[in-house]
Automatic annotation (TrEMBL):
<dbReference type="InterPro" id="IPR006457">
    <property type="entry name" value="S_layer-rel_Mac"/>
</dbReference>
<dbReference type="Pfam" id="PF07752">
    <property type="entry name" value="S-layer"/>
</dbReference>
<protein>
    <recommendedName>
        <fullName>S-layer family duplication domain-containing protein</fullName>
    </recommendedName>
</protein>
<feature type="domain" description="S-layer family duplication">
    <location>
        <begin position="272"/>
        <end position="516"/>
    </location>
</feature>
<feature type="domain" description="S-layer family duplication">
    <location>
        <begin position="30"/>
        <end position="242"/>
    </location>
</feature>
Length: 565
């Protein structure tokens, strides 16, 4: 059995962690390197959190066999996906800004929350007078020289703790004095106290020391095929496949800032030896790539190959490939559809993490807008929004006959009368609207008309297996460029490679959606480079941009706004 790790919050972006086996005897470790919901620094590779799971039986974790650990490293820790500063054992406060930067202008204060603010009182040559205020009343003032470090403390629970620290970068003495603050760390003034015995959902705190915070599950966790199970409340859920013991997928809280970097597993290579190196990511190690949980397959693969002692990517060294997989129709009557690439089923593949239908060599791919086996009931006169301007309308229901119309932008494009069990467009139940797309006839929309439900008032019709393809294909031709890569093959799979040498760094755009980040470390005279793929997801751009209003959001490092880094 395998499963998908999920972080749940209402309206959150769904992210998938690694696929894991949950059969009897399996021991699984999820952490910041392989599971993007946990805090992970994309500049240093630092992470604090891990979740260890032991399955004593298929899909069963006995009480005490799930352990969530948050390590304390150099006075910092991660807790439920966020970075915290440790004030003292069991007292932690959220690291709101981590090594960020912003300009501080006279008259435009730095709002720290809970009534605290940092104010620029004035400038004198190469120094600045900074003041911490609480509810607009002075707490403390400091004169800070350009290039010098500073910190400000606040009294919390009777003790003084640092809530802001950084370095005064540049001082600009003009009509509107302004200073730049760099390497800024801001900590919340509302700390969290964690004690042994505290409960977080089905987990209980079992240990709090200067080295770690540990929680264990106090009740057994059972997972069966098709289940969606909460593991750590508001952090990780498991979605189990319907027919295999696999699972994985999670949602991350959006809070106030709705911008996310969703990363895959970090892979580290040694660049000090003379051998070539390679890194490979699939849906198993990069959760934003497409994975069919129901049929247990993935199609996308990202591969990086580096020559020895070369600090760039040679031509053809970066490859993105997606191989179509044939699947049957959910609607049993569609097996008799016999046109081209859609004969008895169709081929699907992932493209930048999204599910598409493959039309064939140089024919492109089309988005699959709808494909499920859920029941839906429509009454006479009711319309069903199918996406991309299409709707399905029930014009009338007479005895065992259903009068249906497919509309595009409120204009009828196809009508049919279905008599369930007797006559239909295909088989005895199915409405089928076909359309030619890029020279290929596709079953653009089909639905199984199950039966007519007659009532004392309006009658309704029960519908199943809706399948709707986009009529706007993404054309993929050899020689076309997407991001840093060029299409080199479109059959029997889609393959893209870099045609020019590339420099790797913190953000290399691979395709239109996939990025590749990296950072270097030197340990014991040996150089290593860590690579990680990621996708950016932005819900509301305004929320992450600095403003000039009194309640401004400072410009910060990516770590503060982006998930999984």
């Amino acid at each position: 059995m395998s499963l998908v790790a999920v972080i749940p919050v209402n309206g959150a972006i769904e992210q998938r962690g690694p696929l894991v086996n949950i059969s009897a005897g399996e021991y699984v470790i999820l952490n910041g390197e392989n599971c993007p919901g946990f805090y992970y620094s994309t500049s240093t590779g630092t992470y604090y959190e891990s979740l260890e799971l032991y399955f004593s039986e298929d899909g069963l974790i006995e009480a005490g066999n799930a352990t969530y650990t948050s390590k304390v490293i150099s006075g910092s820790t991660g807790f439920f996906g966020k970075k915290y500063k440790v004030f003292e054992d069991g007292l932690i406060t959220e690291n709101l800004v981590s090594y960020g930067s912003r300009d501080l202008q006279q008259g435009n204060d730095y709002d720290l929350g809970n009534g605290y603010r940092l104010v620029l009182l004035g400038i004198n040559d190469e120094s600045a007078l900074l003041e911490l205020q609480k509810d607009f009343l002075p707490v403390t003032s400091k004169s800070v020289d350009e290039g010098s470090k500073f910190n400000f403390t606040a009294t919390i629970n009777g003790n003084k703790y640092v809530i802001l620290e950084g370095t005064l970068g540049r001082v600009l003495n003009s009509n509107d004095p302004v200073v730049s603050l760099v390497s800024v760390n801001q900590y919340s003034t509302a700390p969290i106290e964690i004690k042994v015995g505290d409960q977080y959902g089905n987990f209980e705190v079992t240990e709090v020391t200067d080295e770690k915070i540990e929680l264990k599950n106090r009740v057994p966790i059972r997972m069966n095929p098709g289940d969606y199970v909460t593991i750590l409340e508001n952090l990780i859920d498991f979605r189990v496949a319907d027919n295999v013991y696999k699972a994985c997928s999670y949602n991350m809280t959006k809070d106030v800032i709705n911008s996310y970097k969703i990363k895959g597993t970090s892979l580290t290579v040694n660049r000090s030896d003379s051998s070539p190196d390679s890194c490979v990511w699939t849906a198993d190690s990069f959760g934003m790539l497409y994975y069919d949980l129901e049929n247990d397959f993935s199609t996308e693969r990202l591969e990086l190959n580096l020559d020895d002692e070369i600090d760039w990517i040679r031509e053809g060294g970066l490859v993105y490939e997606s191989s179509p997989v044939r699947i049957p129709y959910k609607n049993p009557e569609m097996k008799d559809y016999g046109e081209n690439a859609f004969n008895g089923g169709y081929s699907v593949l992932g493209w930048d993490g999204e599910k598409y239908a493959y039309l064939g060599d140089n024919q492109g791919i089309v988005n699959i807008l709808m494909d499920d086996d859920n029941d839906r009931r429509l009454y006479s006169g009711e319309e069903w929004d199918l996406g991309e301007g299409y709707t399905l309308r029930v014009d009338d229901i007479k005895s065992d006959r259903v009068y249906l119309t497919v509309l595009r932008n409120n204009v009828a494009v196809y009508s049919s009368i279905i008599s369930p069990g007797n006559s239909a467009d295909i088989g005895t139940h199915t409405l089928l609207y076909r359309k030619n797309v890029n020279g290929v006839e596709i079953p653009l929309f089909s639905v199984y008309v199950d039966n007519v439900l007659e009532g004392s008032g309006n009658s309704c019709v029960s519908l199943r297996y809706p399948l709707h393809f986009s009529e706007s294909p993404l054309e993929l031709k050899v020689g076309e460029t997407f991001g840093s890569l060029t299409v080199v093959e479109t059959y029997p799979h889609i393959r893209l490679e870099n045609k020019n040498t590339l420099n790797f760094g913190s953000d290399l755009k691979v395709t239109e959606e996939i990025h590749l980040g990296s950072f270097e470390k030197t340990t014991g005279g040996k150089l290593s480079v860590t690579f990680f793929p990621f996708m950016n997801k932005v819900e509301k751009v305004d929320s992450v941009l600095p403003t000039t209003t009194q309640r401004s959001i400072p410009v910060m490092s990516l770590e503060e706004y982006l998930i999984g880094n």
